[in-house]
Amino acid sequence: MQTKFVKALSVASFVAAAFTATSSFAVEKIIKIDGSSTVYPITEAVAEEFQKSSKVKVTVGESGTGGGFKKFCRGETDISDASRPISQKEIDACKDAGIQYIELPIAYDALTVVVNAKNNNFVKEISAEDLKKIWSGSSVKNWNQVNSSYPNQPMALFGPGTASGTFDYFCEAINGQKGKHRSDYTPSEDDNVLVQGVASNAGGIGYFGYAYYEANKDKLRALPISAKAGSPAIMPSPEAVMNGTYQPLSRPLFIYVNATAAAFRPEVKAFVNYYLENAPKLVKEVKYVPLPTADYAAVTAHFKAMKPGTGFNGTPEVGIKITDLINRIK
Amino acid sequence: MTQASVIKNLTEVRAMIKRHKMDDYIFSIIGIIALMIGLLTLLTLFIDLIYDGSGRFNLKFLSDYPSRRAENAGLLSAWVGSTLVMLITFLTAVPMGVAAGLYLEEYASKNWFSDIIEINVSNLAGVPSIVYGLLALGLFVYGLGLGQSILTAGLTLGLLILPIVIVSTRESIRAIPVAIREAAYAVGATKWQVVYDHVLKYSYGGILTGVIIGMARALGETAPIITIGALTFIAFLPPSPISDVPPYLNFEWLSSGFTVLPIQMFNWLSRPDHAFHVNAAATGAIIIVVTLLMNGYAIRLRYKIRESIKW
Fold first, then answer.
1. What architecture is domain B58-308?
2. Helices (H), chain A
3. Which of A180, A274, B24, B106 could form an SS bridge with A175, CB 3.0 to 4.6 Å?
4. Which chain B residue shows the shortest CA-CA distance from A38?
């Protein structure tokens, strides 16, 4: 009788111990991700799939690229989503906090310039120079100031807010200078507001990520873009981004992985490997453009080698090849 | 006075009465229009939300985690997060608010100091909620190191509705006749006995009403929760508050990351895919229904308690 009771007690305590062990175990294994709202759908898709096959928990926030880096450089997150490369300020902040990171390009996005589908049939295509004329200063007010063959119709401009990575890339790629952008336009961090704006203004023009154009093709018309005057105008499409002809508005998207977490936490390593392995399929599913297969292989090898640092000097670059970028980091 | 002049006078008076009745009538029309503008706008909005989100009102929507596929995405982590945050809000705002209200009404002496406090409390009720968010980011998240947790969110919203609780406590205390207190003092009750046995007993209906209305407001708050850094994709629940091993209570959930209903709605609304906008509409309708239910319950409760008190 006595032994039976002791036996039962020991079993009970064992079960209890197992319970407490698993619960504290589970709490530790959380991968925290924050950052760009542009990259968010991709990371969300990967996190969703990853958690189906793994016990590890993943949380994804969308504080914007800048907001994400602020948390990342304080060591609050393990991975930061970014729609532009890390800036000099952020490089310094991470350095001061002793945080090292591995820069991994994971997909392309085509910034798409759109006009109103119903009321604008005069603009067939646009050159990068004309875009610069429109967006760099506030001198262009009417469409005929862009091209004298266009009607004298007031232009209504819609674009992302200054805190957005999309804004930074556009300044660099079109206006040719960091932060150079006209200020008399309607800014919004919510791309659906920009869609509504262009769709309800006869003279509307705006730019945002390809996925928002794809979902609103009935209201908006995307403009083919020629990189230089005289060169052929290319319509934004996954193919044109993949084969490198859609320039200068195709941009790479990144994740930045905390190097210490990647090295010492197997679940972070497993998640990033899962990310790169499944990116081709999932990126397409959420309406972004996957990198060429060879580039994913190069990025995977780069992650395996655990080389910290950035291939940029704090500013976005236009038309950079993924392999060149990786080779810059020694 | 001749008969003719009386009749003339009478017709004048009748005309005047008619004119005044007309004024009455005109004002009531204006009043109804004013009422309808507000009510119909809200009603249209609500019906529109229900219509847009009609395909998503099912149990699956409430028991699924968020997903990249709109038809698989659900509210589970959001409503559990909202519930837990509301629990903390209730546990902090009610004791603090009621104690503060009782002190100001029953204990504080009337001088310039209590005047300043009074002005500040009513001012606090008008402070934009984003300011509370910024305060919480500095104080709770970084100052006290509570992180982006359920505890932080609950405390923030608790602060946010504190003025509402204080004001409603004071108002329901003031509604108690002085005679009741005097009678209690007359038979030798101490201040605390008066407060506990009489003031609180008679005013708790009104206090509860204020609390519920405050909670209904907190439920829909987005700005301060975004500021302190709530997550948007979270496909697991916080650790359960109840465990099957002693001491049966688990406080790990307090420090867990979370999301809440309005943030989930905001996230879906900013997606390119229209199927997510349907989810957002359904979430909006659910938030409104829960808020209406809470407010309706508050009104019923107040009515019931009023009925049961007989002085």
1. Orthogonal Bundle (1.10)
2. 2-28, 40-53, 64-72, 88-96, 128-136, 165-170, 191-200, 210-214, 238-242, 259-264, 266-285, 293-305, 322-328
3. A180
4. B271
- Tell me the pLDDT of chain B averaged across its residues: 89
Distance from CA of A87 to the nearest CA of B (A): 22
CA–CA separation, B254 and B258 (whole Å): 10
Contact A211 B272 (CB under 8 A): yes
Residue A18 above 50 pLDDT?
no
CB contact under 8 A, A61 and B239: no
| Calpha distance A176→A100 (Å, rounded) | 30
CA–CA distance, B217 with B42 (Å, rounded to integer): 16
Neighbours of A8 (CB within 10 A): 10
Contact A254, A153 (CB under 8 A): no
> What single letter denotes the amino acid at residue B2?
T
Is the CB of A287 inside 8 Å of chain B's CB atoms? Answer: yes
A212 has a chain B CB within 8 A of its CB: yes
> Tokens at residue A231, please?
């060169």
pLDDT, mean of residues B213-226: 90
Segment B110-162, tens digit of pLDDT: 888 888 988 898 888 888 999 999 999 999 988 998 888 899 999 999 999 99
Average pLDDT over residues B57-85: 90
Show the tokens assigned to B108: 């504080």
Checking if the pLDDT of A8 tops 60, the result is no
Residue A22 contacts B, CB cutoff 8 Å = no
Longest dimension (CA), chain B: 100
Global confidence as pTM: 0.81
User: How long a stretch of residues is chain B?
Assistant: 311
